[in-house]
Amino acid sequence: MPKVRLHVSERIVEKEVKDEANLVVMAALGQFPELKYGCGIGRCTKCKSKIIEGGEHLNPPNWKEKKLLGDELEEGYRLTCQLTITSNVELTQDEQLANRELSGEEAKM
Ligand code: FES
């Protein structure tokens, strides 16, 4: 099962999730309460996360992400509600952390 490591509000939350999990659906079901989200359908951007590791295993950005994130896609941001988790991934919704350049070691703290 894929492992998800989420940095949020100066904390790190780690969970194993089912293959092909959608983290926003899990959050709505109370299984990932730390995750920030809103509409769940790719409209509000409240679920925006910066991918730290594992982005290469995620589904490619869809038209909603391209429209709403634009250049931020190049910076590693994704809409979590549009992601299907099939492999380990590390992401952050901590703005301060997302705005810093992370070294590999720092990202693992
Ligand atoms: S929850 Fe609104 S865009 Fe993802």
Spatial arrangement of strands, main beta sheet: 2-1-5-3-4
Low-confidence blocks of residues: none
Proper CATH architecture:
Roll
Report the CATH C-level class. Alpha Beta
In short:
The protein is of the alpha+beta class and 109 residues long. It has a single domain, classed as Beta-grasp domain (Ubiquitin-like (UB roll), Roll), CATH 3.10.20.
Keywords:
5-stranded mixed sheet; Ubiquitin-like (UB roll); 109 residues; binds FE2/S2 (inorganic) cluster; 4 helices; alpha+beta
Would you give an account of this structure?
The chain has a single domain, classed as Roll (Ubiquitin-like (UB roll)), CATH 3.10.20.30. It is globular. A five-stranded mixed β-sheet has the order 2-1-5-3-4. The chain starts with a strand and ends with a helix. The chain has helices at 23-28, 63-69, 95-99, 104-107; strands at 3-8, 11-16, 48-53, 77-79, 89-92. Helix content is 20%, strand content 23%. It is α+β, with helices and mostly antiparallel strands. A hairpin with a 2-residue loop joins β1 (3-8) and β2 (11-16). Residues 24, 37-40, 42-47, 79, 81 line the site of FE2/S2 (inorganic) cluster.
Topology of this structure?
Elements: E1 3-8, E2 11-16, H1 23-28, E3 48-53, H2 63-69, E4 77-79, E5 89-92, H3 95-99, H4 104-107
Parallel strand pairs: 1-5
Antiparallel strand pairs: 1-2, 3-4, 3-5
Bound molecules: FE2/S2 (inorganic) cluster (FES).
FE2/S2 (inorganic) cluster (FES) is lined by residues 24, 37-40, 42-47, 79, 81.
